[in-house]
Amino acid sequence: MKLLVSVPLIFAGCICLCLSLEKHFLVLMQKSLAGHQRIGLRATGYVLLLASLVVAFIGGSFLGFVYWFGLFSLVAIPIPFLLTRFARSLSVTSRPE
């Protein structure tokens, strides 16, 4: 049950933190990032990661921290590759012919 809740929270948190960077936001959303959007995305990303950490600690064991770091590693590693692939597919489809 922890896995079904933690993985999407970690994934969404990492995506929010990636989108809070100007370069990634510009490539994926194809518009400029406003200051209040950056703050909102960062806050949302950190809150989601904190929520996933709390879910990992449910059950009363200190091993929840180890469990969370393992899940974080598994989920966060493919995100740059997914963002790159998604950005390439956007640039291919948005080229004028």
Q: Your description of this structure?
A:
There is one protein chain. The chain has 97 residues and is mainly α. It contains five helices and no strands. The chain has helices spanning 2-19, 22-29, 35-57, 63-76, 79-93. The longest helix has 23 residues, at 35-57.
Percent range of helical residues: over 70%
Series of H and E elements: HHHHH
**Number of DSSP strand runs:** 0
In round numbers, the mean pLDDT is 84
Largest sheet: none
Work out the strand percent. Answer: under 5%
Number of helices: 5
Shape: elongated
Q: Which features characterize this protein?
A:
single chain, 97 residues, mainly alpha, 5 helices, 80% helix, elongated
Provide a quick synopsis of the model.
Helices cover 80% and strands 0% of the residues.
How does the SSE layout of this entry go?
Elements: H1 2-19, H2 22-29, H3 35-57, H4 63-76, H5 79-93
Helix pairs in contact: 1-3, 1-4, 3-4
